[in-house]
Amino acid sequence: MTVTVIIPVFNRPVEIRGAVASVLRQRSAVPLDVLVIDDGSDDETPQVLADLAAADSRVRTIRRDNGGISAARNTGLDNLLPETEFVTFLDSDDLMAPDRFVTDLAVLIARPEVAITYGNMVITFALDRDNLTVPKDAKQLELTSVHLACCLYRRSLIETVGRFDDTLKMAEDTDYIFRTFEIGVTFVQTETVCHYYLRHPGNISSDSKDNQTWFARAVVRSVHRRKKDPCRKLVKPDFNIELQEDFFKS
Q1: Residues 123, 106: Cα–Cα separation, whole Å
Q2: Cα 144–146–152 angle (5° rounding)?
């Protein structure tokens, strides 16, 4: 019984060190497997990953031709260990919060009918990658957003939901989460802070107009799936995706 954390990365040699370290520091009731998918990096990232894997046997790395984040996550799903029972995800520029697994893994282990837990995230504009935390003076907000790192999946649910749609430019994680909660899954919403999400100009979702457009497309796709199959019902966590207008003002 193992929990696998899938981390796609492309050309982030500095950030990936912190992301991996934030997972390795976790207290976990089951062994950790950190699976980093290098999506064709052409800088020093491959060497950084080789060093990380050499330093800790819990780190595995797989290199693939560049194909985008969905294809990279699918490569991760294709390479789960035989003993992997639980799966979650982390973006390479974010940090996993301390004790991310303590409550949520306990729920899944104690209650076999529960297929997924869903927690919170902290959005911020700064991360202290040396201490793996959010600086005290950084603007930050805890919320229940739509994000894969808030999910802790039982492997059987991953196998039911299937693969990520690599035709989506953005909101591929939203699409996957909607697909998850459309199929009558038994879930537990927790108050666990799962990760620190860094907002910065390099975020693929930083362009709010594009983000809103692709999010809307994911919603429409969900509606169409449920119209086509009336057995599908979107029963989901209580998402809080409305941010105060002044949060993004410096």
Answers
A1: 25
A2: 85
Location of structure tokens 């196998």:
159
- Are 136 and 156 a contacting pair, CB within 8 Å? no
Distance CA 158, CA 6 (A): 13
Task: List the alpha helices (DSSP H) in 32-187.
Answer: 45-55, 69-78, 102-110, 155-161, 172-181
Nearest to 76 by CA among 37, 49, 123: 37
Helix (H) or strand (E) holding 189: strand 187-198
Is-contact 145 121, C-beta < 8 A?
yes
Angle at alpha carbon of residue 82, lines to 185 and 85, rounded to 5°: 30
Ramachandran region, residue 184 (left: φ > 0; alpha: ψ -120 to 50; beta: rest): left
The torsion angles phi and psi of 67, rounded to 5 degrees, stand at -145, 0
Q: How far is 110 from 92, CA to CA, in rounded Å?
A: 30
Structure tokens given for 102: 């303590």
C-alpha to C-alpha distance for 24 and 41, rounded to whole angstroms: 22
The whole-angstrom separation of Cα 101 and Cα 119 is 10
Please give the pLDDT value at position 211. Answer: 78
**Consecutive 10-residue runs of the chain (250 residues): their mean pLDDT?**
97 97 94 98 98 98 97 98 98 97 96 98 96 95 95 98 92 95 96 94 59 87 93 91 58
What does R_g of the chain's alpha carbons equal in angstroms? Answer: 17
Which H or E element spans position 222?
helix 208-228
Query: How many other C-beta atoms are found inside a 10 Å radius of the C-beta of residue 92?
Result: 25
Q: Tell whether pTM > 0.70.
A: yes
Longest dimension (CA), the chain: 50
| Structure tokens belonging to residue 12 | 């982030």
